[in-house]
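seq as requested:
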Amino acid sequence: MNTQLSASNPADMICVRGAREHNLKNVSVSVPRDKFVVMTGVSGSGKSSLAFGTIYAEAQRRYLESVSPYARRLFNQMPVPVVDAIEGLPPAVALQQQRGGSSSRSSVGSLTTLSNLLRMLYSRAGTYPAGMSRLEAEDFSSNTPMGACPRCHGLGRIYDVTEKTLVPDDTLSIRQRAVAAWPTAWQGQNLRDILITRGVNVDIPWKDLPKATRDWILYTKETPTEPVYPGRTHEQVLEAIKHGVPADYNGTFTGARQYVLNTFAKSQSAKMRARAASFMVSSVCPECHGQKLKAEALQVMFAGRNIAELSALPLKNITAILQEQSQQLKKQTDATGLAAYGIVEALIERLQTLLELGLGYLQLSRGVQTLSPGEYQRLRLGTQIRSNLFGVLYVLDEPSSGLHPCDTQALLKALHGLLDAGNSLLVVEHNCQVIRHAEWLVDVGPDAGEKGGEILYSGPLDGLKSVSRSRTRPYIFDEITCGQAVPLKPKE
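struct tokens:
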């Protein structure tokens, strides 16, 4: 391994000894704190195992040792890294591409906390209809009982069933599982046997049953309990009841719609919830028209728009609207105007950071699950820039992923902003433009899997020129077409 340590005092280094995570071959390496450190190499070379699986995992482990056992359960803990020792390790924050435990309700606004400020703005400075009492910030959130539309519970869509989804083939009989939404195995057989007791013909095509019977089977909210005699016809059941023959058991009936909705809402099994969802159809909520909020919140305006309408605009448009409003609010001297001005300025400042990261086309209302990995990571990066933390090691996973080349300079400016605030950067990256800005480079490889896991070089960027085994070197120093990204996979 070619390693240069003379440029920094060892006391200012993060020193890793004997790292064996995944394919790392018992490697040791030192990197400087308070610098822009980039880790390079083909995919599978071991650079992520070193950056995230070893360095960040150990920083997280040390932090979690300081909190209560109960608090530890709330964290998505990484496995303890296989490493002999790591010295000089500061507290670390990982900005990875995966979305972790983000729920279906998570949005760009909630991820960046911009929605919190926007709700406060509407609560304090919104234009209310005559006679309406002032609403609290929580009343403008679709994730709270106070603000959510009562019809769709803040989802913007309603989910229900139809006869066609519950019974996709009406030429089948109930015995032939015409009611496909019913549970399989014993529970489905139980429901069928209850219908036999009630006198329903389970052996004729579903379409030939009386409509009233079909509707009751599918949509009733009643839960009658009936004696069950498995394997007997309705006439035989009546005869058994007449002669006092005890039933095998008493079964409780549940309508198909009720069964599906209850399973979808309450089941602890993801597989069962997914099965229930397959029998449901969704449509825009007729009460909030997809805006997720209760009617009162949607009547409050700022700059001529309610909060749902403003949140649906691209971030660059929201910024322009707020900048225009800021000029007007700046002239006001009353308490409401002053408060609104402060909130608007805070919003503009945070939005400007996201615009500089090339994210101005996103909407606050856009779901986190629809974001690309690069978009997600840059949103988190933008939030961290405003956090005012210092003395932290930020570990990033290809922050340039999906970024237009013309926005790379803005990304680099944001990263240097974290450095200037007194933090350290450890970035896993393939983008040549980003790599060339490294103050220190760690090249891992030479290839993937068993053929990787070595530290080929650790030191200032120029020193990589002399490392012949490096797959990164020819891309960085223009031995291969300038501007190409370092390949994700090694050449055969």
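The radius of gyration is 31 Å.
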